[in-house]
Design brief:
8 helices, 10 strands, 6-stranded mixed beta sheet, 28% strand, Rossmann fold
Length: 247
């Protein structure tokens, strides 16, 4: 069982030394859709989320839609625990797995094998779990003998294959994504797509931020349209897609 419950969640970011700088305020206003205000101390604040309420349960596949700055990334970071609500409550029950930044924790001076343990540790895997999956990760990444070479000697494609192979070995109850991961050449891309499909099928709850109508319709059964940090529409994926992208 996994569950997510947001109740009137608001997230404010204070902008220090900005109150007397009109150009900076204007730039922030453009970048955030105009959600500027001030707190009790008179500091300029950016309101990234404003009174967001929704619940998710096992089987939910949620797509997040909205313009850049609408609050999608902030909501995902709330789910991972990077941010906390300024007001309201955000409760998450279940093991979280994030594919938002698959290269987080990768050390260019360490070997590929060492980076498997570094990245795996950041994903919450024990040394025993990593050892149990080590052969599969190396085989899936197609690195061969390069797995014992420093990461700085890798091409960008090799780097991404290793990061993808490690990050998708876990099977979390709640999976978070910022767009669909697709890495490597055509041959590896097919393997990656298949593994991503398996990962999505086995997770209890999926939350994915996207700008793709095709991804939303193929993967999600529900969608939330965010605008200026507020929920503009929350309904089944087809209805929200028709409203957001057009019929």
């Amino acid at each position: 069982m996994a569950a997510i419950d947001f109740d009137s969640v608001t997230v404010d970011f204070p902008i220090y030394n900005a109150s007397g700088r009109s150009l900076k305020k204007r730039l922030i206003q453009v970048a955030t859709g105009g959600q500027l205000g001030s707190d009790a101390q008179g500091r300029v604040i950016v309101r990234a989320l404003d009174g967001v309420t929704f619940s998710l349960r096992d089987g939910d596949r949620l797509g997040l839609l909205g313009h850049n700055g609408a609050g999608k990334s902030t909501l995902l970071r709330l789910l991972t625990g990077v941010y906390s609500p300024s007001s309201g409550s955000a409760h998450v029950d279940g093991e979280i797995g994030s594919l938002i930044d698959i290269s987080l924790g990768i050390d260019p001076e360490a070997t590929g094998r060492e980076n498997i343990f570094l990245r795996g540790g950041m994903l919450g895997m024990s040394k025993h779990e990593i050892n149990s999956n080590l052969a599969d990760i190396i085989d899936f990444s197609e690195l061969g003998d390069f797995v014992d070479m420093p990461l700085r000697t890798y091409s960008s494609g090799m780097h991404l294959r290793l990061a993808f192979a490690v990050s998708t070995i876990v099977r979390p109850q709640i999976l978070l994504m910022d767009e669909w991961l697709s890495v490597g050449d055509e041959g590896f891309k097919h393997k990656a797509e298949q593994r991503m499909g398996e990962l999505v099928q086995t997770t209890n709850i999926l939350v994915v931020a996207t700008h793709s109508r095709e991804l939303l319709m193929d993967t999600c059964n529900r969608a939330i349209w965010l605008e200026h940090g507020r929920i503009k529409m929350d309904a089944d994926a087809g209805a929200v897609a028709a409203a957001y992208f057009g019929a």
